[in-house]
Amino acid sequence: MTTWVGRSIRRFEDPALVRGQGRFTADLPAARWVRFVRSPVASGLVERITPPAGSVCITHADLVGVRPIKPMLDRFDYVPIEQPLLAKACVRYVGDLVAAVLGTTAADAEDIADQVLLDITALQPVMDTPSALAEDAPVVHAGMSDNIVVRAQMCTPGHAQAWAAADRIIDCDIRSHRQSGQPIEARAAHAAWDSSGRVTLTCTAQMPHLMRTAIADLLDMPEADLRVVAPDVGGGFGQKMSLAPEYALVVWLARKFRTSIAWVEDRRENLMASFHSRDLAISVQGAFDAQARLVALSGDVLANVGAYAPYPNTAAVEPLMSFAELPGPYAVAEYACLARGVVTNTCASAPYRGVSRPALTLAMERLMDKAARSFGLLPEEIRRRNLVQQFPHTSPTGLIYDTASYRETMELALRVADLTRFRQRQVTARVEKRYLGVGIATFCERTGYGSPAFAARGMGVTPGWETVQLAMDPSGFVEARIGASPHGQGLRTTLAQIIADAVGIVPERVRIIHGDTDRTPYGWGTFASRSLVISGGACLIAAQQLHTRLCRVASIMLEAAEADIELRDGIARVAGTDRTIAIADIARASYHGAHRFAESPGLQETASYDPLGTFSNATHIAFVDVDVETCAVRIERFIVAEDAGRLINPMIVDGQIRGGVAQGIANALYEEIVYDEHGDILTTTLADFLMPTAHEIPPLEIHHLETLSDASIIGAKGLGEGGTIGAPAAVLNAINDALQPFGAELDAMPATPLRIHDALRAART
Amino acid sequence: MKPSSFTHHEVGSIDEAVAALARFSAEGGRILAGGQSLVPMMAFRLAQPTHLIDINRIPGLDRPRLEAGELVIPACVRHAGFHQQVIPGPLGDMLATVVRHIAHVPIRNRGTFCGSIAHADPSAEWPVVLVALDGVVVARGVAGTREIPAAAFFQGIMTTALAEHEMLTEIRLPNAAAGQRYGFCEHARRAGDYAQAIALAGWRISEGVIRQARLAIGGVEPTPRRLPAVEALLDGHAPNDALFSEVADAVAHCVTPMEDPQVSASLRRDLLRATTRRALQRACA
Amino acid sequence: MLHVNGVDHLVCVEARRSLADTLRQDCGLTGTHVGCEHGVCGSCTVIVDGVAVRACLMFAVQAQGLPIRTVEGLACGDILHPLQEAFIAHHGLQCGFCTPGFLMLAAAALEQDAWLDDAAILDLVSSNLCRCTGYQTILAAVKAAAIVMREEA
Ligand SMILES: Cc1cc2nc3c(=O)[nH]c(=O)nc-3n(C[C@H](O)[C@H](O)[C@H](O)COP(=O)(O)OP(=O)(O)OC[C@H]3O[C@@H](n4cnc5c(N)ncnc54)[C@H](O)[C@@H]3O)c2cc1C
Ligand code: FES
Ligand code: FES
To answer: In sequence order, which residues have a C-beta less than 8 Å from that of residue B158 and are 6 or more positions away?
Structure first.
């Protein structure tokens, strides 16, 4: 019975936020402000740090007994690397933490930081994967034999044979240039020491519980002495998921100086030293049979993971995810892949919405378009022949694809798109020297995976399950304490919808408590499009338990059989009669008249959920107009057809898609972190790192299918990342379609005017 | 990203401003106009002025006026002041077109025309207007007032003929007679960004042919400039697409484009070719 | 003396303190956010003397005596401003960090002219950055609020 699920009810988050009553980390007052002194060079030996007289300046030598960050991966082919909270002897990228100074205001601390003299002997940095792999390359981490931190390789037994028998081999080399998630709220941390010795760390975090464990480990303090609070968080997109050394330092400082300490990252620091992402080169080769069916796939993934490894995902997350998920939605049986993660003197790379999938989808979708052209087929036709259509499907890397609608979703998008008409228009436009193009991207998004998936990766920490503690109080309100930690996804609303339906009350009577380790059960937070599926699943189970208990109590109070009790709209009713009692009265009785029932007193339920994972899927179709004189790309139209199972709140679902596609378009056309050959970062302002404005993001046409899969008990599959995954491939395919008359091809993102210009010039010569 | 310390001087007249500049400019004193370029530079600590002479509350500097056939733009006229025609006629129209390309509404509400000229960013719009029209920059120092012709004003990236102790008090632009036509075009990555190529064309048509052609470019070289040699290709000819393409090619050939990580010299040349041709076409529209 | 939302705040700050930081840290009005401190993101947008400005690019000393409006002053008691209503109804916010800036940007523009056409609204909304919504719902919200404000006017 769904009364609330499936409805676009208004978000409970919004009234406070639109009044400016959100509570963000940087809103907290503090006694002292910390400013970090960062390395101005990409690689060097720290000889001496000279602070101005009378200042408080903390360096590595002060951090006695503090452990380095060292994320582990239980794989023979992974080399763990260490990151001291403050540089020990070497600095490894521009922005690396060298010292921390304190001031009474942020400006004051910045003045002091400016006066800290750094004596650093600069060394030759390695900036990109080719130079890091060169025979004589300096090693970024002393003690490593080379710069490779992870090297995964596989080949299915039938690969060589299928390869040899193929009709033709199609090559595609794509490059995804470095990106940054750039939430509009940069990172911030505030640690307040209280006289009991306990510290409350309020910070911009996606994983508060794990932050607490990790920081307590690093600082060798009892976890109980640390409370981590993620208040309102202004977007994360992955950047606030990994452990920031700055957060641990703020806690250390608060304990050391027994006061409150604040750090509010500025935009320059965020661009320079918050986690980067997606610096990947992927080469794929597809072996196709004469019917244009992909019979074997070979991949070579090279990820520039930066100088350090993010905790908990490690530096292997991008290469290994590419390795495992490269085949995407295509039913290829034979697969060979080599994936390497390479350390360089750049900012560490960490998960960013979509993780490596925007890049691997770009590789596969470019491959499909190139193959289509080689076979003289339309892009949609080659996809029809290759999309997985039998479920469950086991991929060559052992992933199990649950029921989905890859083909149907694409056909839905195609019907909306009416490509026949567009292609006529494309031809006429060319006569007027206007170059239009259309690009398709089909993909699947692995979401809501539990601990087995992380265990399969060999992660030392296997996140996955979620727990919820649900309590109905004597007034009949439900409080659900969750381990997930939303920051814009509207989980307070969607979870309330799920619970309301399962219990039989209105969502206004459900309060979701999150983001506070003192008030919520241990959980993993919000990342990997998991919260709704896993936390929602746990909420559903707990709410069903509560429902059962309420029915039992109601049956005694109404003197009826338990099976005859219906709960709806806050009322318990004996089915088919007018004998009713308010759920609030049941709640009151459960606490205040508990002697009447055989139940344990009160109404508390706890449940956990740890699913195997599910795949949502989508097709994006982009229509572009490329101005070949200025090399500017305008997106004329953008269609999304997606299937994420049951829509709990369609408005919020569409919001996730819109935001995701906007980031995907940003990746496809505008945004890029650029270093020069000396290791200096060139994109440290928002005038250089070009986030799109309303002018650059087109309206979307969104269409849904709702395939229900038993891989998710709430019926919903995650989709938080899909928009970002598909859009770059759709846009690049469209640009390539537009440039066909020139014979120009472009397989790198972002497809900046400069790259388009170079591609056109290359085609001309 | 907090600015370093400075002393704030709010001045009530141009004389006071000039006196304060005379006193503090040698030790790092500067004029604070709209603050839309200076304050970001201070936030990055690329600029660390020790004294800011704030001219925002000087009365009477916030309205342009027509005086002896010239549009006089005093130091505190904000960009937003040009959203509506400041004077009837082609000049007012052209300025209203150009201002839409400068940043965004809240920045236009603070940033000033004269501040943009004083700041002399090579990719800014107003400097192109100033040189295209051969406007005059009026500068006042303790020693007195001088008038600097546009062609002599811009000397390099963010460097001008203005002396440290001088305040730019106003800009004068010759008003355009009825029948004057302008065409403006710029290319920027996103709406509101600084331009990567700017072209502003102007002329009158008499007896079917172009007279008194003007063509100025910006965003391509360290300073904006007029291109007299190219203007000569337009004068006396009937406007048509073939001519415009020829002129655009000539413009593209006669510049030495700046390079940066986003735009190679070759791309910038092509951008300028396209913007020039489009500006010429718009002058006919 | 800062005159914010009709209330006088007597504050004593360094000349270098931005209006945004002063509102947040000295007046306790943390609804105005700071996202970039160099004029690009627009999270800090407030209304000074009737027009929307970047509060990170203005020093508090410059705003002395001028009427300042921030997001905290937008609603009238329990009654939300039409823009606030519309942002909720059209899902014009997700994390909500950028929202106060967009609200003040649009409030200044629509209170001056509620008849802005779609192109002008697009130009206006492109002044600020939002990382969550993809902007279309913000545009829809501003357009919807404009209609309400026309009727009210
Ligand atoms: C996000 C953003 C985008 C922008 N995009 C653009 C754009 O696309 N195009 C564009 O042209 N501009 C752009 N700008 C800059 C904006 O137009 C500025 O307003 C302008 O460049 C400077 O004017 P101002 O009044 O703000 O000057 P200020 O910032 O106050 O001053 C700039 C410099 O000029 C000096 N100065 C100012 N006035 C005088 C004077 N009267 N006498 C002597 N010296 C003086 C100052 O001392 C300072 O060195 C942008 C700004 C931002 C923040
Ligand atoms: S904080 Fe002011 S514009 Fe970004
Ligand atoms: S809602 Fe998150 S930045 Fe706009």
So the answer is: B119, B120, B121, B122
Cα(A260)–Cα(A250) distance, integer angstroms? 9
CB distance B79 to B107 below 8 Å: yes
Lowest-confidence region among A597-611, B68-82, B113-127, B146-160: A597-611
The CATH fold of domain A14-20+452-609: Aldehyde Oxidoreductase; domain 4 (3.30.365)
Asked if the model's pLDDT at residue A527 lies above 80, the reply is no
Distances (CA, A) of A551 to A432, A480, A579, B144: 71, 19, 14, 92
Chain B residues near residue C53 by CB distance under 8 angstroms: 106, 109-110
Instruction: Convert the pLDDT of each residue in B72-125 to its tens digit.
Output: 999 999 999 999 999 999 999 999 999 999 999 999 999 999 999 999 999 999
Would you call B4 and A111 a contact, using CB atoms and an 8 Å cutoff? yes
Q: Considering the domain A354-450+612-759 in this protein, what is its CATH number? A: 3.30.365.10
pLDDT of res. A1: 59
Say how far apart CA A464 and CA A455 lie, in whole Å.
Answer: 9
Backbone phi, then psi, for A395, in 5-degree steps? -80, 165
pLDDT at A53 over 80: yes
* C-alpha torsion angle, residues A751, A752, A758, A761 (rounded to 10): 90
Chains that touch A (3 or more CB pairs under 8 A): B, C
In degrees to the nearest 10, what's the CA dihedral of C142, C145, C151, C153? -80
B71 within ligand 1 shell (Cβ under 6 A): no
Q: Is C95 in the pocket of ligand 3 (CB under 6 A)?
A: yes
- pTM for the whole structure: 0.97
Strands (E), chain C: 2-4, 7-9, 45-48, 51-54, 67-69
Q: What is the tens place of the pLDDT at every residue in B9-19? A: 999 999 999 99
Q: pLDDT at residue A529 above 80? A: no
The ipTM, to two decimals, is: 0.98
Where are the domains positioned within chain A?
Answer: 14-20+452-609, 31-123, 354-450+612-759
Nearest atom in ligand 3 to the alpha carbon of residue C93 is 1
Q: What is the rounded average pLDDT for all residues in chain B?
A: 97
**Domain C82-152 belongs to what topology?**
DNA polymerase; domain 1 (1.10.150)
Residue of B nearest to C15 (CA): B8
Atom nearest to B124 CA in ligand 1:
11
Half-sphere exposure of A657 (CA within 13 A, CB side): 26
- Identify the band that residue B158 occupies on the pLDDT scale cut at 50, 70 and 90: very high
Q: Any idea which fold A31-123 has?
A: Aldehyde Oxidoreductase; domain 3 (3.90.1170)
DSSP state of A318: H
Rounded distance from Cα A594 to ligand 1 centre (Å): 72
Candidate CATH numbers 3.10.20.30, 3.30.450.20, 3.90.1170.50, 1.20.120.140; the one for domain C2-73: 3.10.20.30
Evaluate whether A243 touches A313 at the Cβ level (below 8 Å).
no
User: In chain A, what are the helix, strand and coil shares in percent, each to the nearest 5?
Assistant: 35, 25, 40
Q: Tell how far CA B61 is from the center of its chain.
A: 18
Give the separation between CA A713 and CA A533, rounded to whole angstroms.
Answer: 8
Q: How far apart are CA A629 and CA A137, in angstroms?
A: 41
